[in-house]
Amino acid sequence: MIMLPFKLVYHDSYDLNLGEHVFPSQKYRLIAEKLLLDRIAEKQGFLRPEMARDADILRVHTAGWVKKLKTGTLSYSDIMKLEVPYSQELVEAFWYAAGGTIAAAQAALRDGIGCNLGGGFHHAYPGHGEGFCAIHDVAVAIRRMQNDGAIGRGMVVDTDVHHGNGTAAIFANDDSVFTLSIHQANNYPAHKPASSLDLNMEDGVDDQEYLGALLPAVHRTLDQFQPDMVFYIGGADPYREDQLGGLALSVEGLKARDAGVFEEVRKRRIPLVTTLAGGYARRVLDTVQIHVNTVMAARDVAEKYPQANLTGS
Ligand SMILES: [Zn+2]
Fold first, then answer.
1. 9 Cβ neighbours under 8 A, 6+ residues apart
2. pLDDT digit of tens for each residue in the chain (313 aa)?
3. In this structure, are strands 197-201 and 177-184 parallel, antiparallel, or unpaired?
4. Ligand 1 centroid vs 120 CA: distance in angstroms?
5. How far is the CA of 277 from the centre of ligand 1 (A)?
6. How far does residue 160's CA lie from ligand 1's centre (Å)?
7. 3-class SS of residue 242
8. Residue 209 CB-density burial (10 A; 0-12 exposed, 13-18 middle, 19+ buried)
9. Checking CA distances to 302, which of 65, 111, 206, 232 falls within 20 to 30 Å?
10. % helix / strand / coil in the chain, to the nearest 5?
11. Sign, Cα dihedral of 169, 157, 50, 129
């Protein structure tokens, strides 16, 4: 039996209950099952999160938006922007995802790495949701860690094919959080508020060009900003067969992306939290494999730089 040197955070309620939808929200369960089936993880390696507390959510989101979600009083325009049908299960899924990213951050403080097999809802703004994202789990976790005094400075590395507009807006005037987004320039969202660093990719960019832009930028930023924790938003949608993406990365290129970022973080002994974000490949199993590969990349980097080499704090 192989024990992962870090926890996988997962809850069956991550499923957004969307039915037939371009967002395959059953992917969370399929990823957890595949990690067990492929004997990458065993059951004891999983950690079941609780829903985030409202007090945690409210450090990022407005009371008005939280009330709309909890009472089911979204306007027609709110739902059009969110682009997913409203249900009580949907709301609970976002609260579980935020609780999951908090749990992964706490696990990362202990183990060096914590993987949430969900989350990465980077399009959520303080007062509204959009692009399948109602609650910004990563921002909620960063604010919780800061509030607990566990970290001072946080960094977000967002590799989803779509710009991290919610992240950029939430941390726009906050020097304690560095936001890096690498995304396709010519894609949703139309309005892209400035991240601390935006790497705008042209249509059809391949593995080599993408990695050549991303990895030196991550290297440089880690050296200059020196975050206490890195939050990775690992979109599967820069994949060349993605239905909502227009970049041309291969499955191998995406794994090299994950491994390259994780290595930069791990060798500097900075706790790493991973989340999933988007993935809309024609074959759902491709999306599942890309996300599973993210966990394998984390495992490989953890083995290459064992915990004994981490200072811990
Ligand atoms: Zn995306």
1. 46, 47, 48, 49, 100, 101, 103, 104, 107, 114, 115, 116, 117, 118
2. 568 999 999 999 999 888 778 888 899 999 999 999 999 999 999 999 999 999 999 999 999 999 999 999 999 999 999 999 999 999 999 999 999 999 999 999 999 999 999 999 999 999 999 999 999 999 999 999 999 999 999 999 999 999 999 999 999 999 999 999 999 999 999 999 999 999 999 999 999 999 999 999 999 999 999 999 999 999 999 999 999 999 999 999 999 999 999 999 999 999 999 999 999 999 999 999 999 999 999 999 999 998 755 554 4
3. parallel
4. 9
5. 6
6. 5
7. strand
8. middle
9. 206
10. 45, 15, 45
11. positive
Q: What is the pTM of this model?
A: 0.96
For 112-161, where are the alpha helices, taking DSSP H only? 137-147
137/156 Cα distance (integer angstroms): 12
Q: Are 84 and 145 in contact (CB under 8 A)?
A: no
Q: Measured between alpha carbons, how far is residue 162 from residues 11, 155, 278, 293 in Å?
A: 25, 18, 9, 20
DSSP annotation of 204: T
CA–centroid distance, residue 156 to ligand 1 (Å)? 15
- 231 sits in which H/E element: strand 229-233
The token pair that represents 187 in the structure block: 């894609």
The secondary structure of residue 249, as a DSSP letter, is: B
